[in-house]
Amino acid sequence: MHTKTEGNTFTKEIGQTVYGVRYYFNEDAKETMQEKINRMLVIEVNQPEI
User: Fold this and answer.
1) Measured between alpha carbons, how far is 40 from 49 in angstroms, rounded to an integer?
2) What whole-number distance in Å separates Cα of residue 12 and Cα of residue 22?
3) What is the pLDDT of residues 3-21, one digit of tens each?
4) Which of the four, 36, 38, 43, 48, has the lowest number of CB atoms within 10 Å?
5) Local structure of residue 48 (DSSP, 8 states)
């Protein structure tokens, strides 16, 4: 896997597919990135299986 970062975007190559990702961080956010990741993980774990 290869990753290339430039500004607020990056590309990630997985196998034969290249993904382009653009990200944005709100400077006025009330939670840290770690808090956001933890919140998302809790939501994911608590979702019922399909």
Assistant:
1) 16
2) 11
3) 655 668 889 999 999 999 8
4) 48
5) P
